[in-house]
Design a protein that fits this description.
Structural class: alpha/beta
Shape: globular
CATH topology: Aldehyde Dehydrogenase, Chain A, domain 1
Number of domains: 1
Distance between the termini: 30 Å
Oligomer: single chain
Number of strands: 8
Number of helices: 8
CATH class: Alpha Beta
CATH superfamily: Aldehyde Dehydrogenase, Chain A, domain 1
Protein backbone atom coordinates (compact mmCIF):
# COMPACT_ATOMS: atom_id res chain seq x y z
CA UNK A 1 0.00 0.00 0.00
CA UNK A 2 1.23 3.50 -0.83
CA UNK A 3 -0.42 6.66 0.47
CA UNK A 4 0.38 9.97 -1.14
CA UNK A 5 -2.45 11.89 0.53
CA UNK A 6 -3.32 12.48 4.14
CA UNK A 7 -6.92 12.62 5.32
CA UNK A 8 -7.63 16.33 5.76
CA UNK A 9 -11.29 17.00 5.11
CA UNK A 10 -11.01 14.29 2.42
CA UNK A 11 -8.74 16.62 0.40
CA UNK A 12 -5.11 16.64 -0.70
CA UNK A 13 -2.38 18.05 1.50
CA UNK A 14 0.69 20.15 0.95
CA UNK A 15 3.35 18.23 -0.96
CA UNK A 16 6.44 20.33 -0.31
CA UNK A 17 7.81 18.31 2.58
CA UNK A 18 8.27 14.59 3.02
CA UNK A 19 9.42 12.06 5.56
CA UNK A 20 10.16 8.36 5.31
CA UNK A 21 8.07 5.60 6.82
CA UNK A 22 10.52 2.72 7.13
CA UNK A 23 8.92 -0.68 6.65
CA UNK A 24 10.62 -3.94 7.41
CA UNK A 25 11.05 -4.42 3.66
CA UNK A 26 11.17 -1.07 1.90
CA UNK A 27 10.81 2.67 2.39
CA UNK A 28 7.82 4.76 1.39
CA UNK A 29 7.39 8.50 1.44
CA UNK A 30 4.72 10.39 3.34
CA UNK A 31 4.09 14.08 3.44
CA UNK A 32 3.76 16.64 6.18
CA UNK A 33 3.88 20.40 6.39
CA UNK A 34 2.85 23.18 8.78
CA UNK A 35 0.10 24.24 6.39
CA UNK A 36 -1.46 20.79 6.68
CA UNK A 37 -2.07 21.31 10.40
CA UNK A 38 -3.82 24.62 9.76
CA UNK A 39 -5.88 23.01 7.02
CA UNK A 40 -6.87 20.08 9.24
CA UNK A 41 -7.82 22.28 12.19
CA UNK A 42 -9.87 24.57 9.97
CA UNK A 43 -11.69 21.56 8.52
CA UNK A 44 -12.46 20.29 12.02
CA UNK A 45 -13.60 23.76 13.12
CA UNK A 46 -15.93 24.07 10.13
CA UNK A 47 -17.37 20.62 10.80
CA UNK A 48 -18.12 21.67 14.39
CA UNK A 49 -19.94 24.88 13.53
CA UNK A 50 -23.54 25.26 14.66
CA UNK A 51 -25.85 24.10 11.90
CA UNK A 52 -23.27 21.76 10.36
CA UNK A 53 -24.36 18.20 9.48
CA UNK A 54 -22.31 16.86 12.41
CA UNK A 55 -23.76 19.28 14.96
CA UNK A 56 -27.30 18.63 13.72
CA UNK A 57 -26.87 14.86 13.81
CA UNK A 58 -28.82 12.98 16.48
CA UNK A 59 -26.70 11.20 19.07
CA UNK A 60 -28.21 7.87 18.05
CA UNK A 61 -27.01 8.45 14.49
CA UNK A 62 -23.49 9.17 15.75
CA UNK A 63 -23.65 5.78 17.41
CA UNK A 64 -24.87 4.22 14.17
CA UNK A 65 -21.88 5.65 12.29
CA UNK A 66 -19.51 4.22 14.88
CA UNK A 67 -21.19 0.82 14.54
CA UNK A 68 -20.77 1.05 10.76
CA UNK A 69 -17.11 1.88 11.22
CA UNK A 70 -16.72 -1.17 13.46
CA UNK A 71 -18.43 -3.27 10.77
CA UNK A 72 -16.03 -1.98 8.10
CA UNK A 73 -12.99 -2.65 10.28
CA UNK A 74 -14.27 -6.16 11.00
CA UNK A 75 -14.82 -6.73 7.29
CA UNK A 76 -11.24 -5.68 6.47
CA UNK A 77 -9.65 -7.19 9.58
CA UNK A 78 -7.24 -9.47 7.71
CA UNK A 79 -5.95 -6.61 5.56
CA UNK A 80 -5.64 -4.24 8.52
CA UNK A 81 -3.78 -6.90 10.51
CA UNK A 82 -1.34 -7.30 7.62
CA UNK A 83 -0.78 -3.54 7.47
CA UNK A 84 -0.28 -3.39 11.24
CA UNK A 85 2.32 -6.14 11.08
CA UNK A 86 4.15 -4.58 8.12
CA UNK A 87 4.24 -1.17 9.78
CA UNK A 88 4.67 -2.06 13.45
CA UNK A 89 6.55 -5.35 13.29
CA UNK A 90 4.37 -7.33 15.70
CA UNK A 91 3.45 -10.91 14.71
CA UNK A 92 0.49 -11.18 12.35
CA UNK A 93 -1.24 -13.57 14.76
CA UNK A 94 -1.18 -10.88 17.45
CA UNK A 95 -2.45 -8.19 15.10
CA UNK A 96 -5.29 -10.37 13.82
CA UNK A 97 -6.38 -12.24 16.95
CA UNK A 98 -5.71 -9.61 19.63
CA UNK A 99 -5.55 -6.05 18.30
CA UNK A 100 -8.25 -6.11 15.62
CA UNK A 101 -11.00 -7.68 17.77
CA UNK A 102 -10.30 -5.17 20.53
CA UNK A 103 -10.46 -2.28 18.06
CA UNK A 104 -13.88 -3.43 16.86
CA UNK A 105 -15.12 -3.86 20.44
CA UNK A 106 -13.84 -0.40 21.38
CA UNK A 107 -15.77 1.34 18.62
CA UNK A 108 -18.90 -0.68 19.42
CA UNK A 109 -18.60 0.21 23.10
CA UNK A 110 -18.53 3.94 22.40
CA UNK A 111 -21.22 3.57 19.75
CA UNK A 112 -23.46 2.29 22.52
CA UNK A 113 -22.64 5.28 24.72
CA UNK A 114 -23.40 7.90 22.07
CA UNK A 115 -27.05 8.44 23.12
CA UNK A 116 -26.54 7.76 26.82
CA UNK A 117 -24.60 10.83 27.99
CA UNK A 118 -27.18 12.07 30.47
CA UNK A 119 -27.40 15.29 32.46
CA UNK A 120 -29.31 15.63 35.71
CA UNK A 121 -31.76 17.90 37.45
CA UNK A 122 -30.69 19.46 40.75
CA UNK A 123 -33.22 20.33 43.50
CA UNK A 124 -31.93 23.76 44.55
CA UNK A 125 -33.64 26.23 46.89
CA UNK A 126 -36.04 28.81 45.51
CA UNK A 127 -38.32 28.93 42.50
CA UNK A 128 -35.71 27.77 40.02
CA UNK A 129 -35.23 24.90 37.62
CA UNK A 130 -31.62 23.70 37.65
CA UNK A 131 -30.17 21.09 35.31
CA UNK A 132 -26.91 20.00 33.70
CA UNK A 133 -26.39 19.15 30.05
CA UNK A 134 -23.28 17.58 28.52
CA UNK A 135 -22.00 19.36 25.41
CA UNK A 136 -19.13 18.46 23.05
CA UNK A 137 -16.04 20.53 23.72
CA UNK A 138 -15.12 21.15 20.07
CA UNK A 139 -11.96 20.39 18.12
CA UNK A 140 -9.87 17.70 19.82
CA UNK A 141 -6.19 17.42 19.01
CA UNK A 142 -4.95 13.86 19.50
CA UNK A 143 -1.44 12.43 19.37
CA UNK A 144 -0.84 8.68 19.51
CA UNK A 145 2.31 6.51 19.69
CA UNK A 146 3.64 3.65 17.60
CA UNK A 147 3.23 0.61 19.84
CA UNK A 148 -0.51 -0.05 19.37
CA UNK A 149 -1.42 2.06 16.33
CA UNK A 150 -4.94 0.74 15.71
CA UNK A 151 -5.90 0.42 19.36
CA UNK A 152 -4.57 3.85 20.25
CA UNK A 153 -6.54 5.34 17.38
CA UNK A 154 -9.73 3.60 18.54
CA UNK A 155 -9.25 4.64 22.16
CA UNK A 156 -8.90 8.27 21.11
CA UNK A 157 -11.49 8.47 18.32
CA UNK A 158 -14.25 6.46 20.00
CA UNK A 159 -15.12 8.73 22.94
CA UNK A 160 -14.45 11.96 21.04
CA UNK A 161 -16.80 11.04 18.19
CA UNK A 162 -19.46 9.47 20.40
CA UNK A 163 -19.83 12.77 22.25
CA UNK A 164 -20.00 14.89 19.10
CA UNK A 165 -16.51 16.37 18.88
CA UNK A 166 -14.32 16.73 15.81
CA UNK A 167 -10.75 15.43 15.65
CA UNK A 168 -7.32 16.32 14.34
CA UNK A 169 -5.12 13.29 15.02
CA UNK A 170 -1.34 13.09 14.60
CA UNK A 171 -0.32 9.45 14.31
CA UNK A 172 3.19 8.19 14.95
CA UNK A 173 5.42 8.86 11.96
CA UNK A 174 6.78 5.30 12.28
CA UNK A 175 3.35 3.63 11.96
CA UNK A 176 0.84 5.66 9.92
CA UNK A 177 -0.54 3.03 7.56
CA UNK A 178 -3.44 1.54 9.50
CA UNK A 179 -4.58 4.94 10.76
CA UNK A 180 -4.76 6.25 7.21
CA UNK A 181 -6.67 3.17 6.08
CA UNK A 182 -9.16 3.56 8.94
CA UNK A 183 -9.56 7.18 7.85
CA UNK A 184 -10.63 5.93 4.43
CA UNK A 185 -13.19 3.69 6.15
CA UNK A 186 -14.47 6.65 8.16
CA UNK A 187 -15.17 8.40 4.89
CA UNK A 188 -16.71 5.25 3.39
CA UNK A 189 -19.25 4.75 6.19
CA UNK A 190 -20.54 8.31 5.95
CA UNK A 191 -18.97 10.58 8.55
CA UNK A 192 -19.37 14.21 7.41
CA UNK A 193 -16.43 16.06 5.88
CA UNK A 194 -13.95 17.44 8.37
CA UNK A 195 -15.10 15.45 11.39
CA UNK A 196 -11.94 13.30 11.41
CA UNK A 197 -8.60 14.54 10.07
CA UNK A 198 -5.48 12.35 10.18
CA UNK A 199 -1.93 13.70 9.98
CA UNK A 200 1.20 11.57 9.68
CA UNK A 201 4.06 13.85 10.67
CA UNK A 202 6.91 14.38 13.09
CA UNK A 203 6.17 15.28 16.68
CA UNK A 204 8.43 18.32 16.67
CA UNK A 205 6.59 19.80 13.69
CA UNK A 206 3.09 18.41 13.18
CA UNK A 207 2.54 17.38 16.81
CA UNK A 208 3.80 20.65 18.23
CA UNK A 209 1.73 22.64 15.74
CA UNK A 210 -1.44 20.87 16.86
CA UNK A 211 -0.63 21.28 20.55
CA UNK A 212 -0.10 25.03 20.28
CA UNK A 213 -2.91 25.73 17.80
CA UNK A 214 -5.37 28.29 19.18
CA UNK A 215 -8.35 26.67 17.43
CA UNK A 216 -7.80 23.32 19.16
CA UNK A 217 -10.06 23.12 22.22
CA UNK A 218 -8.63 20.02 23.91
CA UNK A 219 -5.48 17.92 23.61
CA UNK A 220 -5.12 14.20 24.25
CA UNK A 221 -1.58 12.83 24.19
CA UNK A 222 -0.29 9.32 24.77
CA UNK A 223 3.48 8.97 24.76
CA UNK A 224 6.63 9.04 26.84
CA UNK A 225 7.76 11.84 29.14
CA UNK A 226 10.76 12.28 26.83
CA UNK A 227 8.58 12.87 23.78
CA UNK A 228 5.94 15.06 25.43
CA UNK A 229 8.03 18.28 25.71
CA UNK A 230 8.85 18.17 21.99
Amino acid sequence: MYYKTLQLNWANHNDRARFEDVWLFKNHLFLHFQADVDKAVQAARNAFKLGSPWRRMDASNRGLLLHRLADAIERDAAYLAELETIDNGKPYAVSYTVDLPKVVKCFRYYAGWADKWEGKTIPIDGDFFCYTRHEPIGVCGQIIPWNFPLLMQAWKLGPALATGNTVVMKVAEQTPLTALYVASLIKEVGFPDGVVNILAGLGASAGAAIARHMDVDKMAFTGSTEVAPT
